[in-house]
Amino acid sequence: MLRTIFAIVVGSVIALMVGWFNWTVLNLWEDAFKPLPPAVESAIVPMVPSQLGYGTWFFPGIDMQAMAKLPAGEQAKAFEAYSAVHERGPVGLVMVSPGSVPMAPSTFGKAMIFNALGAIGVALVLCCCRGWLLSRWLRASAVIVLITTIFYGSLVNWMGLPPQFIGRMAADVIVTWSVVALVMAFIIRPRCCCAGTKDAAVCSCGNGACK
Q1: Structure pTM?
Q2: Beta partners for 157?
Q3: Quick count: other Cβ atoms within 10 Å of Cβ 28?
Q4: Which single residue of 44, 57, 116, 161 could bond 94 by disulfide (Cβ 3.0 to 4.6 Å)?
Q5: What's the Rg (C-alpha) of the chain?
Q6: How many Cβ atoms are within 10 Å of 177's Cβ, its own excluded?
Q7: Are the CB atoms for 193 and 148 separated by under 8 Å?
Q8: What is the dihedral of CA 191, 193, 196, 201, to 10 degrees?
């Protein structure tokens, strides 16, 4: 139990360190997450608080509730007009949040909470695994890849977010948590199910699994 708790703490710290490495050394976001050009920012941003407010907005816009109240024929025409604009593009999301201090201590505090939750998830997978280190790490990594693909894949498919941006986000998560899983697999060792058994013909405790 203490070993598992220790692994969760270490994994949380490793996640923060690898995330920093991805941003500052690997530069995963260099060509996928860019600031607005100053001229564009000065023209658009001042209008955002009064014209939009805080929230998430998509364009081209369509009022689905209002369209649902139209007769069937009018609905078809409205959707056809919307489809033409959507196909022509551009298509996107505008996400607006209140101002905040960049890289505030509270941001790192919340990051550690999220990291701890992620490390608990990795620990649950590792505690259910038997076998050698590589086998347990591969199983945990497979779960990480599957969950990441399901979540971020839906953002590309349904929300139409740029694949390059989403791909870098997914890569950040997979790289970070695969490294965390490897470190935690070193710490969390499977308990030998044959503890106290001396009959070599019955079990093999070298990898924590019975024959």
Answers
A1: 0.82
A2: none
A3: 19
A4: 57
A5: 24
A6: 28
A7: no
A8: -130
Question: For residues 147 and 118, is the Cβ–Cβ distance under 8 A?
Answer: no
Q: What is the DSSP string of 94-148?
A: EEE-----TT-HHHHHHHHHHHHHHHHHHHHHHHT--S-HHHHHHHHHHHHHHHH
Consecutive 10-residue averages of pLDDT for the chain (211 residues): 94 96 88 89 92 92 90 91 93 91 93 97 93 93 97 92 92 96 93 52 47 39
Closest Cα to residue 160, out of 78, 59, 82?
59
Strand partners for 58: 93
Per DSSP, the three-state class of 61 is: coil
Amino acid at 165: F
DSSP 205: T
Residue with tokens 């949040």: 97
Three-state secondary structure call for residue 72: helix
Map out the domains of the chain as residue ranges.
2-35+100-187
